[in-house]
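Chapter review. Work through the record for TolC family protein before attempting the end-of-chapter questions.
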Amino acid sequence: MTTNKYLYWLVSGAVAAMLQSCAIPNIMTKEADTALPAQYSGKAAAADTQSSASVSWKEFFQDQNLVSLIDTAVANNKEIQMMAQRISMAQNEIQARRGAYLPFVNAGGGINYEKTSKFTRLGAVEDGLKIHNQSFPTFLGDYQFGLVASWEVDIWHKLRNAQQVAVLDYMATTEGKSFLVTNLVAEVANSYYELVALDNQLLTLQKNIEIQQNALNVIRELQKYARSTSLAVKRFEAEVKKNQSKQYVIKQQITEAENRINMLLGRTSQPIARNSDGFMELQPKAVETGLPSQMLANRPDIRRSELELAAAKLNIDVARANFYPSFTMNAGLGFQAFKPQYLLNIPDALGASLGAGLMGPLINRNAIIAEYKNASASQIEKAYEYEQTIINAYMEVANQIANVDNLSKNFSLKTDQVNQLTQSIDVANQLFKNARADYGEVLLTQRDALDAKMELIDTKQQQMSAMINLYRSLGGGWR
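Structure tokens for TolC family protein:
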């Protein structure tokens, strides 16, 4: 009776200590602020209700050469392929976590030989016993095989929550791939129109060289009749040479743009099929922005950040469960004998075991507390990161909306400027032939006209880039 009483108090004390060990320190968590304005800044009061982000890039871009390039990039880009492997690893992690809360069953066997010293209790017993009128062998065998099972009962949902964290991480990685595709589509499109713009700049420069060469020929003729000087001839010759040298600068830029596109397409250098004709008449596609709230569902980086925040919240529950006792069950079933011929004797050689255990942290819980606090800090960090991602996305859209509008006005004014300067070239040439203007005015007029044309082409490219970047900022391009 006294023994049972001591046992009772021992078990009660252990249970009380274990319950005391379940005391969990207080931590902080944060809810993300996802509030957004009702409409984008700079927009008219009647905001769009549809968003171009829902349009596939194959439908958004009309140039078939560009569509073909993007299609190749999405299939072959090396970063996309590396991301696919990260997704595969995240999926494998789900399988690993799922298996953690299922019973483990192992099968195995073993052979062991042992010689016991006669000067031990077991050795003395062996020396005095006879089995079937035979002494124990010098080396006693131990043959065994069977099944061993173990199972941690997931009382506190620690293992299930860990599996759900793996699921959320997998989904976040998938969104990361979508975000990568979005940026890849925009980068290929921007590089394509940059290449087309360089083609137009090269063509404009060559036409300007032709005009200047004609002017140079005129001045040489006038010099024969003493109506021009050798200084004018030299200045025009130098201007022609300067612009001829610029051709090679642009050709180098074209080479680099082609190579950049080829790199995005995951291949080595080769010509890029493109249609550069009619670039200056190309009108950027109108982009419907929709409402800011729609951006939350369309942008993969926002959805990825949201999933990472959800995973961080669950990680707190996983870390909290480490304070609670874990309940494990163990079982074994197999055959064991000291000689092989006895191994399959049933039921004599058959052995079985069944046990259960309850274990929880009692002393020195610093590591568990630190992990719990880290989970809290990570959740707060992810909440701020989510908020920052939303703010950045909104600002990107707002900036591109203003950029599209300002570039449209800029292009209109630059077009008028180019038209005026183009006309002024003919006027300057006529005045120079009639000795009413010097060669410097002709040279300056041609130079200004060339610079304005180059700027106009650059502005057109910026218009196309603004359209592409607005589409990307809204979350388009990954579908």
